[in-house]
Design a protein that fits this description.
About 40% of the residues lie in helices and about 15% in strands. With about 325 residues, it is α/β, with parallel strands linked by helices. Strands 3-2-1-4-5-6-10 form a seven-stranded parallel β-sheet, sandwiched between helices. A three-stranded mixed β-sheet has the order 7-9-11. A two-stranded parallel sheet has the order 8-12. It binds (3R)-3-hydroxy-L-norvaline. (3R)-3-hydroxy-L-norvaline binds near residues 79, 120, 170, 171 and 184.
């Protein structure tokens, strides 16, 4: 049956592109976008849109009833850097929104849930390279703690109430359509804008800080592949490791210099360095590959070409 979809947090970095792609697949009228404000006016004007507070259970329930929603993509969250500044708000938004949506699925008001986790669920004690699907998980950030707790609840609701919830541990995501908000990996987006506008960039992470990253097109494709997979092919109901490409600011800068020879980068690590240092350098995503056919499409050179061309840079 064709789903009727509600995207909560549709104006965000992932939500805005996910909304447009889902509308291409299922039709605009079947994909309801929602967010706490119309922070992406173009998106809000591109189809059905509701003002919705992800922490307000009554508002979510009314929206589900009004539109006959079957599937909810809960994309609203406070990311790692901002969450360190506002721990209480981060916990409230990241956790209570999830409980509301899982409860609606438990009570059969909706059929399927997507919820984004993150490689932030890993911590300083986790093996850094080719981090396995199951390993030591001691996140040291507010965001990572909320995502690990959320994963545990997703698996609990699946095992105890049969809720069809699916999740991906996104790496750092790189996109050009929306400006990112409050992430530690945001340098990998800002750098392209600054390279074009100023020809230089001051990076808030150290040159050799290698992190798992992914181009947004790959992340959106993975999300939809997972949600379209047969339920019995999904063996992991906490959240799937997913890998795109790992690189550090120095390597990224070199790919930009191939297109903008005069581009220069300097390094001034700030509080986000400690967050990045607690995360893995690379991810083993073999369960996603074997269970639902995942394969990344963009390497670092391709990402740089995509970003510069879409940001209207012509060498
Ligand atoms: C952040 N972009 O930086 C997010 C992501 C792995 C990082 O979860 O907080």
């Amino acid at each position: 049956m064709t789903p009727k979809i509600l995207i909560i947090g549709a104006c965000g970095q992932i939500g805005s592109e996910l909304t447009l792609t889902l509308r291409d697949i299922y039709g605009t009228s079947r994909v309801i976008a929602s967010d706490i404000r119309k922070s992406n006016p173009e998106l809000a004007a591109s189809g059905p849109f509701e003002i919705l507070d992800a922490t307000d259970k009554e508002q979510i329930g009314s929206c589900i009833d009004k539109h006959g929603i079957t599937d909810v993509y809960l994309m609203a969250a406070m990311l790692s850097a901002t969450a360190e500044k506002y721990p209480d708000k981060a916990w409230d938004l990241n956790m209570n929104s999830l409980f509301h949506v899982l409860d609606f699925a438990r009570d059969k008001k909706i059929k399927k849930v997507f919820w984004p986790s993150s490689i932030a669920v890993f911590g300083p004690g986790t093996p850094k390279e080719q981090t396995p699907q199951q390993t030591i998980m001691e996140p040291s950030t507010v965001y990572g703690i909320s995502k690990l707790a959320g994963e545990r609840w997703c698996e609990y609701y699946y095992k105890n109430y049969g809720v069809d919830v699916r999740s991906i541990r996104y790496p750092g995501l790189i996109s050009w359509k929306t400006s990112p908000g409050g992430g530690t990996t945001d340098y990998a987006i800002d750098i392209y804008h600054q390279a074009i506008e100023k020809g230089s960039y001051e990076c808030f992470l150290d040159e050799n800080t290698t992190l798992p990253m992914m181009y947004m097109d790959d992340a959106i494709r993975a999300t939809i592949s997972l949600m379209q997979a047969e339920s019995n092919s999904i063996k992991i109901r906490s959240s799937y490791n997913l890998s795109g490409v790992s690189f550090n600011p120095g390597e990224l800068a070199k790919t930009i210099q191939k297109h903008i020879p005069g581009f220069s980068i300097s390094y001034k690590p700030d509080f986000r360095q400690k967050i990045a240092d607690s995360w893995p350098g690379s991810i083993d995503d073999s369960p996603a590959r074997t269970q639902w056919g995942w394969k990344a499409g963009f390497d670092l050179e391709a990402i740089t070409e995509e970003m510069l061309s879409n940001l209207n840079f012509s060498s």
